[in-house]
Each structure stands twice: as structure tokens, then as C-alpha cells.
Amino acid sequence: METSVGGGDYGRRVSDRSRTTTTDSTTGLAPSPGRRAHVLVLAAVAVTLLLWASAFVAIRHLGRDVPPGALSLGRLLVASVALGVLVFRRPRTWPAKRDWPLLLLCGVGWFGVYNLALNAAERRIDAGTSALVVQVGPIIVALLATVFLGEKMTRWLLIGMAVGFAGVVVIARGSSSGGSGDLVGVWLAILAAVTYAVGVLAQKPLLGRLPGPEVTWLACVIGAVVCLPWSGELVTVVRESDPSTLWWIAYLGVFPTAIAFSTWAYVLARSNAGTLTLTTFLVPFIATLIAWALLSEVPPALTYVGGALCIAGVLLTRRKSRPRRQPEPEPPAD
Fold this sequence. Notes:
Layout: H1 8-19, H2 35-62, H3 68-88, H4 100-121, H5 127-134, H6 137-148, H7 155-176, H8 180-206, H9 212-226, H10 231-240, H11 243-268, H12 273-278, H13 282-295, H14 301-317
Helix pairs in contact: 2-5, 2-11, 2-13, 3-4, 3-9, 3-10, 3-11, 4-8, 4-9, 5-8, 5-13, 6-7, 6-8, 7-8, 7-14
Family: Belongs to the EamA transporter family.
Organism: Terrabacter terrae
Transmembrane segments: 39-59, 71-88, 100-118, 130-149, 156-172, 184-202, 214-231, 246-269, 276-295, 301-317
């Protein structure tokens, strides 16, 4: 899954301003949002999902020639420059000392290890399968939130986790039929999902204190530093690769990372976060369609069954138990 960025209090303030309307003096009713604003939001959603889905396909395409470390470093360097332009063109809010441990955890896990694991996974499994496995990330987020954030462990959370992880088992079963290397690819994709979850939990409190662009840019720079040990590989790739390979690396840094993060933040500031997150379930299916059209790849049949279970599991974790009805007090005896 490509990562999503919210704006914390910064995004909520924008959201509050965007929802502020005036009432009609005769009817007392608020006018409906402008059609143009609605179209812009829908367009931003479409752009975000398409770019995130295309990232899985681009990684799969480049994985044949570009090592995972070099690809991660190249993508993050390009993204750092592109996001830096966005950050430095307006007044900035820098993190306090207490924010840096969380920033380091987010940057190392979400941007560093996540990219390394996903790039290595897609050398073994197809783009659609990797996108489906990474969709288990929200379930891991919910599980870790109960441990580290003190959130309540509900019945639906347990059921959803069981269904979601059953989906991963089914995907692993379908992929391992092609050889043990495919099973290793599934485990690498699971590692990517875990580091994504850790990054989300680290980012959550940061976005309550800092604007989203600053958090994203700093985490991206930290991720690039994590990948510096592969700088020699990247130099070799730049020297020996054809221009199309370099273009695809630049594409990953600019479009699925810098631009998609920006359009996601734009939508998040104007929409309900919970409902909006559900749209990311379209990413694996869009990625599968793009991979089928451009790479002639079709995931194993069991992958679709497992993917459906993963998504069902995430949906179940979002259900809320109905509050128990309190028994009505008996009328006093005459």
C-alpha cells in the first residue's frame, strides 16, 4: 500500500474552513457545496488511487533491473526534492525535540524499511498480489493501537483480524504454489505492511502538532538516509541504465509519492477520513488491471480469494458493537 498523509490539526483547520457555509436568510438552510469543489475532490481521489496503484506496477517493472536498495534510495531522493519544493515555498513549522523520536520511527519504518521490503517483495510476487497483501496494514494498525495507544480490543476487531490474517494465509498458499521464492515474497510484503502500520502509529501524534507536508518531507529525508548504504548501487544504476529506467525511478518519486501525498491531503481536508480510507481498497484492483495491461501479469486465482478476505477483515474491524440496552426499572409496587 502506498502510504497516506493527513494534516492533523492543520488539516482539520482547513477542513473546518472548507465546511463553513452561510445560511439562506429566507429558508435558514445552508446552500449545497459548489459543483466545482465536488468535482475537484473526486478528481483528487481518482488521481491519488491511480498513482498509488501505478507505483506497485512501476516497482514490479523496475525490479527486474534495479536492486531494491538502489530503487528505494532513488525514489526517496527524488521525492525529498519534490516535497521540499512544496515545504519551502510557504512558512514552515519545525518539530520540537520531543517530536524527533516519532519522526525517526516514521521515517525509518514507513519510508525506509517499507520501501526496501516492498521492492524486494515485488521481485518475487506480482504487483496485484503485493498490493493485496499490503492491504492487511490497517488490521495491524488496529492491533498495535490496542497495545501502544490503549485503544479498546473489541469483538469485531478480533473477528476482523482473524478474517484478515486468514486472507494472508490463502494468498501465501496461492503464491507458494509457484515455488518457495514466491512465499518469501509474501513474507516481505507482510513486513512492508507491518512497517507501514508502525509508521502510521508514529505519525498520528505528530500530525496533531505539525502540518502534514513538513512531517512527510522530514520522514522521506530520514528514509533516504536509511537507504544510503545502497548509494553505490544507485550510482551504478544511473551510469548503466537506459533513460527509460531513470525516468521510471523519477516517476515513482514525483507522482506516487510527492503528488499523490499532496492530493490525498487535499481530499482529507475536505472529506470524512474514515469513509475516505475505504477507497484505498480499490488500489489492489487498479494495480492488477494496470499490471495486466502493461506487464501481462495475472495473480493466482487464490490471491483474489485471499484479497477479498483481507479487505473483509479490515471492514469488520471498523464495525462497532451495539451498546447494551439497560433494563428498564420496574415500576414501584402499589
